[in-house]
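Batch queue: ligand-bound targets. Current item pairs a single chain with pyridoxal-5'-phosphate. No template structures supplied; prediction is de novo from sequence plus SMILES. Inputs echoed for audit trail.
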Amino acid sequence: MKNYKIETKCVQGGYTPGNGEPRQIPIIQSTTFKYATGEDMGKLFDLEASGYFYSRLQNPTCDSVAAKICEMEGGSAAMLLSSGQAASFFAVFNIANAGDHVVSSASIYGGTYNLFAVTMKKMGIEFTFVNPDCTKEELDAAFRPNTKAVFGETIANPALTVLDIEKFADAAHRHGVPLIIDNTFATPVNCRPIEFGADIVTHSTTKYMDGHGAAVGGCIVDSGKFDWMANKEKFPGLCTPDESYHGITYAEKFGKEGAFIYKATAQLMRDFGSTQSPQSAFILNLGLESLHVRMERHCLNALKIAEFLESHPKIGWVNYPGLKSNKYYDLAQKYMKNGTTGVVSFGIKGGRAAAEKFMSELKICAIETHVADARSCCLHPASTTHRQMNEQELIDAGVPSDLVRLSVGLENYTDLIDDISNALSKI
Ligand SMILES: *Cc1c(COP(=O)(O)O)cnc(C)c1O
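Prediction returned. Tokens below.
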């Protein structure tokens, strides 16, 4: 599959049936796997032979789907997880321990911010949050001797900032650490961060990859490019024997291409069990088969709506990285030539009250906290997810009280524009 285009990988990647085998990826709904001798199974436990023994660690359905996403991102190894949150946690915790430090873009998903700033802080890992638009010097200044990784989102949810991936990758590599990119909003159809220097890519597959609001899930892809052994002293977990796993040194045994995912599976998945069910993986794969077709339409619809909103007298501002007037247009063109994402945010003149009235008048676009679904949905953060904040706190968090976030679905865009136009006329 390596030499095929992204569309072909979406449809056929990850799974090639043999003669007479199922055309569709089979759902292996089994917790356990049978072996003839204890010795056969012992080899699996020692990671001497590859195979399956317990679905908390690995399952063939999940592995086929992970292999597809791996091909789509151009990586060397990948794993599925129970959610995007689990993927972000595993990606960082696989290389950062208590006493370590991570540099992260400040413009990230709220759930990830909470995971980093509150929960992982309790585990003894400190984060420095940097403005994604900072200079090279400002970025360098955020590093410490105990920094183990850099984290950012290709297109941030919900701020829609576009990350200068090369700037962040160069900084990470100057300091001997990997760059982890959450590529949820762009998907590998629109951006493949590994091509721009990212070392690890994460996803909430709950969003566009599934795309039908049907299954929560996550994924981690390793580029196989980061040389752990060259930075041995920073990454003892990968470069010295794991006494909890028969004294294996992951970076020696599995090399650059396999060490990260093997460790995350053998150690973190074993201990935390944040596994994706084979049933969910099957549903995710159905989404992946049409991802390239859907992303094109999500982006077309979003651009049409962003252009309509920009010209509407009742709209104060529009934020969509595909608009020529957008601050991130040039960066978006560099990293995402074919399109960005399907989420648009905008401010309604008249603030909070006007935004609430607008939302209540929409007929097609439902009020939901979800994004990246085939069905259009919208959210007014100030009256829902961020309702505990006052006006100033909302501004500081980048979600002013007039902000409406619209996740543009796959409906006909003229119907959507009519719906929006009608709701605006009621204000
Ligand atoms: C939703 C989301 C997550 C968290 O994913 P879940 O599957 O909800 O756990 C992480 N990152 C981004 C960018 C998201 O949009």
